[in-house]
Amino acid sequence: MKYLALVCLLLLTxxxxxxxxxxxxxxxxxxxxxxxxxxxxxxxxxxxxNGSLTLPFFDDFSTFxxxxxxxxxxxxxxxxSDLGAYINCTYAIDPPTIGTVTLDGLNLNGYPYNFTPDAxxxxxxxxxxxxxxxxxxxxxxxxxxxxxQGGGYGNSPDPQDSLVVEFYAPIGGEDPWFHAWSxxxxxxxxxxxxxxxxDDNLFLDDGFRFRFRNYATLSGNLDHWNIDYVFLxxxxxxxxxxxxxxxxVNCPNTLLQDYTAMPWTxxxxxxxxxxxxxxxxxxxxxSNTQADNVTSGFKVAYEDQVDDFQNDFSIxxxxxxxxxxxxxxxxxxxxxxxxxxxxxxxxxxxxVSFYEDKIGILFEExxxxxxxxxxxxxxxxxxxxxxxxxxxERGYSLNVPGGRVAMQYSIAGPDTIxxxxxxxxxxxxxxxxxxxxxxxYGNNGGQPGDExxxxxxxxxxxxxxxxxxTFAYYEFDDPVExxxxxxxxxxxxxxxxxxxxxxxxxxxxxxxxxxxxGLGTQWQQSAIQGSLMLRPVxxxxxxxxxxxxxxxxxxxxxxxxxxxxxxxxVQSEALVTEPLIIALRDLSGREVIQKSFSGRNARMxxxxxxxxxxxxxxxxxxxxxxxxDKLIKR
Length: 634
Prior knowledge:
Elements: H1 2-17, E1 20-24, E2 57-59, E3 86-88, E4 100-103, E5 120-127, E6 131-132, E7 143-150, E8 162-168, E9 177-184, E10 192-197, E11 206-217, E12 225-233, E13 246-248, H2 264-267, H3 271-274, E14 278-285, E15 292-294, E16 296-302, E17 305-310, E18 316-318, E19 323-329, E20 348-356, E21 374-381, E22 394-398, E23 404-422, E24 436-443, E25 448-451, E26 458-459, E27 472-492, E28 500-503, H4 509-512, E29 513-516, E30 524-525, E31 531-532, E32 534-538, E33 557-560, E34 567-586, E35 591-605, E36 612-620, E37 625-633
Antiparallel strand pairs: 1-22, 2-12, 3-4, 4-12, 5-11, 6-11, 7-10, 7-12, 8-9, 8-11, 13-14, 14-19, 15-18, 16-17, 16-20, 20-21, 22-28, 23-27, 23-29, 23-32, 24-25, 24-26, 24-27, 28-31, 29-30, 33-34, 34-35, 34-36, 36-37
């Protein structure tokens, strides 16, 4: 009885510790263009020539203003000389205006500066281009002002972290950078405004620069600082300073009712059914004294066709220092808009923009640019469904062997599912050698039901180091015809937290994400806010999928007998000259037998294994999969 009680206590402890986990990110990585990406446009700043910038200096990060080799983006739009910081519209919570720049522990490619847990030091740097301050004196009240937020949807900086502003003296000697301002790490509820005087003759010269730096954990996407509305000018009185600005705050990402993206052929089955009836945007008047009338609307463009819907009922008087929402009729009167289902056979991409009157600081200098009084995103219709907006602010994981996740999707009509897109984000450790098996379930009264297909091929997380928020594609063992409500996901090999990207700007999890904490446990509905970055991929009328089936592996093995009860003889059809590792795994992914293999023959003892289905694998010493097959133990 004591032994039984001890076992029960141990099981209870394990179940108590097993859970779904929401993590701050250590790295994030993207490939496909997403609905809410902050797009780059070719603006022209009248004060930008081949020499230094002149006052006023302004950047609200509503457009891309860092260096780029893109020939369609002229040099006149640049305001910064480096790329380490990340311009986006997803990490900040209610910024002053749409678009912020985020400093964290990732380099310009979204990979950790130093991928070891305890690495710490200066991380991102955002450095202005040279600015001509010659002719100004300390009495001219030259100030740098900006807004900052610690954390946002990301990870809040710790007390030992800091955000720093430094000034560059054009004739500054051996070390021309001087400390101007800093603040220790903290989580801020909103954005805080800072005023820093530039009143030393050391800086009042042609070639002045300033830069933001963060001291942070260097091992990933941690210790976030969001910065917005950077303004440098003369005649600024911090006690009586006022912005003349009415601007959008957040990014909408879809005109669809449930999805940010869906297969075009699925949308064509009943276009009005998938459209939103209405949508709202959040806007802000930054002025403390100025009230304005604001008129707004939205446009949808496909190639040369543009539909414009002005909001007749959105002419409102915006009071000083007010945050307000504007409503737009989408698929409802008077607009009754639906994406034109006749424009293409298999894929389509529409440009959607929301606009308001041009009311704001220096807007006349950003000619032709949809800046903070315009919002632009792409509505993408290809061959996959998506709830998320393509940005991973955090990570989601399970911490138990055999843990399962399953995301619900309602399919518009019969189609062949080929696989899933997953965005994995490493947190402190590289999990690319961990294993999981894809799963596809039917519907059982609103939760995952029976498996619709047997999948036995082990997969591993794939990470990308050349850009942000990339999705890896994983194919099912065989394509399968599906219809109605399905659930896509996987079962993991071990307790290692695989960390799927978690989008915090959308929220599909509470109604559609389910998980199991190990074999034999019940499905539970997720309590974590956000949208897990799992997307089903369909044929969707395409003849050439980018996610084609891999070629057959060159080595072939025979397992005999199969089914087996005592021993299994493993025979290679070709002479194996390089050492291999052969192994058996149970269906939870756990490795139960492993041994080396070379030559043509080997024997595996399976007498102590429970009856059931197992997977036989042959891998190189570096982990490359060379062969896989099923084995039944009697």
